[in-house]
Design brief:
This protein is of the alpha/beta class. The protein has two domains: about 150 residues, Medium-chain alcohol dehydrogenases, catalytic domain (Quinone Oxidoreductase, Chain A, domain 1), CATH 3.90.180.10; about 140 residues, NAD(P)-binding Rossmann-like Domain (Rossmann fold, 3-Layer(aba) Sandwich), CATH 3.40.50. Helices cover about 30% and strands about 25% of the residues. Helix 2 crosses helix 3 and helix 2 crosses helix 8. The longest helix is centred in the middle third of the chain and has 21 residues. The mean pLDDT is about 95.
């Protein structure tokens, strides 16, 4: 099979694209013919060695995928050859990645692709969709009528939070960095979008939500809690899901007088059973047209190194040249 892989951690230039032996599904696994894979910040951290992990050599990069079941391992009962599936949670934790023509995946991590949903869309939604659902539902317990603020409503996770927040009955406020991206975020259902290059966002949020926001979702790697906490309503929540090295000041006084909380989570801490709950909602919203993929560009597998470089430039370098997900086509 063709695959994008590394033999040692390092920069994007360490990625090679070439032939590797076809994998064979072990007990409990399914062999998937990958129709599309997507690129996430975590993929670049694993590839670069920024996240400590024991990786097989060679190691196929990538965590998201969508495709078609090609073979079934012993003990798998819920899937059949020809089923279309999507998933995440690969490319780490002892698992090979998905930027390849074939991938072996433990059956418990698979979700069915709804009819009429293309592989590219399912792959682009996988990790960011599961992340948004865990944060909104399992951590923050968003309720109808609450107000959600999310930074970056035209981005990968931000666009999922905006759409799912609306699907859950919340009012959604968000930011974007250009007139074009403001319109894009509105297209994802946001009620109010602030252009952070032209507006004082904190002041605009206070004016728009004078009683405070019930959930402040931080997508940025660095969080200014001294600015964020005063924007919260009573019993408001801050969700953080990025910034392993971040060490912000915690304004304890303003936090506790609001009976507020700072909630952190990582998707890998959530079991396959919990993620199946997330996948069921995601598939329902996809089928109902309440959730759409946010794809910036589609690249061939041969350009995986370029895709990783672009992702890094935007995640770490804040280049602002990416709005949505990069999808790879094997």
């Amino acid at each position: 099979m063709k695959a994008a892989y590394i033999e040692e951690t390092g920069g994007p230039e360490k990625i090679q694209v070439g032939d590797l032996p076809d994998p064979t599904p072990a007990e409990g696994e399914v062999l998937v013919r990958v129709g599309a894979a997507s690129v996430n910040p975590i993929d670049t951290y694993v590839r670069g060695g920024l996240v400590a992990a024991e990786l097989p050599v060679p190691f196929v990069v990538g965590s998201d995928f969508a495709g078609t079941v090609e073979a079934i391992g012993d003990g798998v009962e819920n899937w059949r050859v020809g089923d279309r599936v999507w998933g995440a949670n690969q490319g780490g934790h002892g698992r090979q990645g998905t930027a390849a023509e074939l991938a072996c995946v433990d059956a418990q991590w698979l979700h069915a692709i709804p009819n009429e949903v293309e592989d590219e869309a399912a792959a682009a939604i996988a990790l960011v969709g599961l992340t948004a659902h865990v944060g909104l539902v399992l951590k923050a317990n968003i309720q109808p009528g609450e107000t959600v603020f999310v930074n970056g409503g035209a981005g990968g996770v931000g666009s999922m939070v905006a759409q799912m927040g609306k699907a859950l009955g919340a009012r959604v406020l968000t930011t974007a960095g250009s007139a074009e991206r403001v319109e894009k975020a509105k297209g994802f259902g946001a009620d109010v979008v602030f252009n952070y290059r032209e507006e004082d966002v904190a002041a605009a949020v206070r004016e728009t939500a004078p009683d405070g926001v019930d959930l402040f979702w931080e997508t940025r790697r660095e969080t200014d809690l001294e600015e964020v906490v005063p924007l919260l309503a009573n019993r408001g929540r801050v969700v953080v899901m990025a910034g392993r090295e971040a060490r912000p000041v915690l304004p304890v006084g303003p936090l506790y007088v609001r009976d507020a909380s700072v909630l952190g989570f990582a998707l890998f801490n959530y079991s396959a059973e919990q993620q199946q709950q997330c996948g069921a909602d995601i598939n329902r919203w996809l089928a109902e047209g309440k959730l759409q993929a946010n794809i910036d560009r589609v690249l061939p597998l041969e350009e995986t190194a370029a895709a990783h470089r672009l992702q890094e430039e935007n995640t770490i370098g804040l280049a602002g040249t990416l709005s949505g997900k990069i999808v790879l086509k094997p």
